[in-house]
Amino acid sequence: EVNHFPLIIKTGDYESITCNLQSNETPNLSGSCIEIKYTPGDIDNYNFSAISWKVKKDIEGGYDLTKAKKLLFWARGNNGGEVVEFEMGGLSQDSSGLNSASTGAIILSDTWKQYSIDLKDVDLSYTSVGFACLVNKLDNLQGAVFYIDDIKYEF
Questions:
Q1: Based on the number of CB atoms within 10 Å of its own CB, is 141 exposed (0-12), middle (13-18) or buried (19 or more)?
Q2: How far is CA 69 from the centre of its chain?
Q3: Does the pLDDT at position 30 exceed 80?
Q4: Phi/psi of residue 16, each to 5°?
Q5: pLDDT digits (tens, 9 = 90+) for 32-48
Q6: What DSSP string runs through 52-118?
Q7: Alpha carbons 16 and 20: distance in angstroms, whole number
Q8: pTM
């Protein structure tokens, strides 16, 4: 399968979050999974850290995913109790603002579970962020380690 969102961008307290794309820590469906580690930093300006998978810089606007109905993925926490928000999005067709969809903050268990983001009311004509995860410092004061696998759009 092709990854159309190859750029990994870290935002917020970006030094507090790391990403291992080839973790073999009990992957769900394949030989590896994505491992995200968050260790809260001392920076008071940022109460969050995020990792986004984005389009290449040479693709203007993003991909037209208007036929997508859902974004599906599997996730689990290392210990259970990790609080994470998963999302996707991009610009509206007329570039007047952002369009995004999210799970909202969810509490992960330590076993794999499939999640979905409903895309039926989202303008997906210029999707630049294919997938993102956000960790709030106040929800994860002790840090968080979690895993993601089999991210895909359902058409």
A1: exposed
A2: 17
A3: no
A4: -90, 0
A5: 999 999 999 876 678 89
A6: EEE--TTSSS-B--TT--EEEEEEEESSS--EEEEEEEEE-TTSSSEEEEEEEEEE--SS-EEEEEE
A7: 14
A8: 0.90
Query: For the residues 6-21, what does the mean pLDDT come to?
Result: 92
Written as one letter, the residue type at 91 is: L
Alpha-carbon distances, residue 80 vs 36, 68, 112, 146, 147 (angstroms): 14, 30, 10, 9, 11
* DSSP for residue 39: -
Q: What is the mean pLDDT of the chain?
A: 89
CB half-sphere exposure, 116, CA atoms < 13 A: 9
φ/ψ (deg, to 5) at 137 = -60, -45
